[in-house]
Amino acid sequence: MFPAHSISILVSNKPGALVRIALVFSRRGYNIDSLVVSPTLDNSVSRMNIVARGNPETLAQIIQQLEKLVDVIQAKDHTRQNVVEKELVLLKVRCKPEERTELLQLCDHFKGITVDMTEISMILQVTGNSDKIEAMLSLCKKFEIVEFVRTGKIIMMRGESKT
Amino acid sequence: MAAKPLNGAQTMIECLKREGVDTIFGYPGGNVIPIFDAILDSDIKLILTRHEQGATHAADGYARITGKTGVVLVTSGPGATNTLTGIYTAYMDSIPMVIFTGQTVTGSLGMDAFQESDISGMSFASVKHSYLIKNPNDLPRIIKEAFYIAHSGRQGPVLIDLPKDISAGPCTAPFVDDVDLPGYKVPCKADQEGVEQAAATIRKSKKPLILAGHGAAISGASRAVKELAEKLGCPVSSTMLGLGVFPASHELSLGMTGMHGTVAANKAIHECDLLISIGSRFDDRITAKLSEFAKQCEVVHIDIDPAEYGKVIRPRHFLCGDAKNVLEQLLPLTEKLDSAAWLKKVESWKKKYPLSYPKQGGLRVQHIVQTIHEITNGKAIVVSDVGQHQMWTAQFFKCDYPGQLLNSGGAGTMGFGFPAALGAVIGNKTGFPVCAILGDGGFQMTLCELATARNHNLPVKIFVMDNRFLGMVRQWQDLFYDKRYSGVQLENNPDFVKLAKAYDIEGLCISRNADAKRTIEKAMEINDRPVLIHCICEQEDNVFPMIPAGASVDDLLTERPRKILEKPTGGT
């Protein structure tokens, strides 16, 4: 399996921009693992964080092709750079009252919180980098996971430099 | 009383005038009636084609010959979808074009309204950019941006989808003179440090070669290319779309390189120690087997598109900028190279492997092309379609002027040649006659434009090379598929002379080599209206030299081999 790349894009808020960006990835055989679109300080510009997998040699090409799109202001590959990476997961687990303690301990270990609780279920919220989320999900497999929703990864350069 | 505001259509036409548009190629329909109405009150010439695809190819031909942006106007739904082949063709060859498509009213968008098609969605992959206008007051800005984007940087088609309520409704926005596109950068000059480094590499070369591509032609770099070649003492080969950038009659010219290029050009690419590519994107028809391509040389790649860097090959130096500007940066840093031995070698290849064709047998396309060249003294614009005749035209019509040979290179669109020739006639300011050299297959894809040619009395010479075969595919089936001909026989071709007559167009016929000169001379005398010349050609002629797709220069064929060849591994 190809390694995942973290790409950050600044894009003008124009109709069709997302499709144009997605087409660049699909045309060169890249799979998008996650995609987060969010507003920025400038109302006319959005931020996209994309995690994608594919042949590493192709990635530089993809970044160049993204840069070429009229609506794309900048596209950068932040893989292995000095960045803060975060994502959030909501995890719904079916759990009987007698299982609660163990689940809460687990949640606590990952610095998660509970955001919903019923007689038979619980929703946990955990944030962190993707590895941490994976570890958390893996440990929760012994319980009955009903579903989970992940936000996808967002990244920001550390220090003063801009993402 | 205040003046009545312009409607969207009138605003659009005014914007086009401000962009210097004098000709629109189009076809009407329900959702563009307001625009066709507004055209009546302007002095913009409307060329009504007989199919929307023809309108796009004609605008393409017009753009190629004038260097201006071609403008297309069609209706929504099928009118819009019919332009896709033409848009894609322009995209592949970096041709500036703005395509206006009608659209259903904004309130019906996405409701499967009558003749609604999501043309911007369908065309995303083949446009440089596109717009769907939802506010009439965006019209002036968007049209300004569209023309700027189409004609700057690496040129290309831009589509504007225009709902009917926008064109029919009022537009009160002022006209604009500037664009504000924060994400759009136009490379102009290359980084000077990079140029200096490239010059240092060039100075070391003893076996240099220039590859002139379409980018050199578009940027008007032909004088700079010539200066560089002469200064360095460097032979020049061309891609098909780069033919004419460097005069074919020049002693340093090696002609076309690639699949059906000259032996000398292909051997030179294989053996050079320096390849200066000027506006070529290393198409697979040029490189053949990539792992064998230019493997023992340093590459200096000059291209205006930053995304071409490393796309196909990894050059030693990438100089991003307009070809002409970059060459002007490079020229003062270069000096005569020690290339005498190399030039001698290259010259010996040229002498040993000239382009040739058998003189016996029936009428040959090569003979027609050579005769046209001879009669016009090389002063003709030649627009070809796609297939064997295209290759023979590229091989045997020796171009001394840039922009002399127009054809669909990247896309290889059959049906392109004839309508593109009509656009070329309309934009032609060279005084050279325009000859369309077409195959019997491609011509029949867009021959409805005979009516357009007659309608506007466009003085085009329509050479239909009739071999009753789809020759290029037949050639592959002949060489690689044991002559198992499948789907390539064009039985029941029409009598093309009678067909011309049905459109009230004069038709001539050539069936023997001996008749070619007299008949072509006769056709050349007709300069106020179209003329069709039906050329009944040798049926099973093959194009050589040929490097089979995916093979290398070592596998170059100069004649039909006796044995059946392995099926090619490359795409086409």
Write the layout of secondary structure elements.
The complex is a heterodimer of chains A (163) and B (572).
Chain A: E1 4-12, H1 17-27, E2 31-39, E3 45-53, H2 56-68, E4 72-77, E5 83-94, H3 100-109, E6 113-117, E7 121-128, H4 130-139, E8 144-150, E9 154-157
Antiparallel strand pairs in A: 1-3, 1-4, 2-3, 5-7, 5-8, 5-9, 6-7
Chain B: H1 8-18, E1 23-26, H2 33-40, E2 45-48, H3 52-66, E3 70-74, H4 78-81, H5 84-92, E4 97-103, H6 119-123, E5 129-132, H7 139-151, E6 157-163, H8 164-168, H9 192-203, E7 208-212, H10 214-218, H11 222-232, E8 236-238, E9 253-256, H12 263-271, E10 274-278, H13 284-287, E11 298-303, E12 317-320, H14 323-330, H15 340-352, H16 365-375, E13 381-384, H17 388-396, E14 405-406, H18 417-427, E15 434-439, H19 440-445, H20 450-455, E16 460-466, H21 471-480, H22 496-502, E17 506-510, H23 513-524, E18 531-536
Parallel strand pairs in B: 1-2, 1-3, 3-4, 4-6, 5-6, 7-8, 7-10, 8-9, 10-11, 11-12, 13-14, 13-15, 15-16, 16-18, 17-18
Helix pairs in contact in B: 1-2, 1-7, 3-5, 3-18, 12-15, 16-17, 16-23
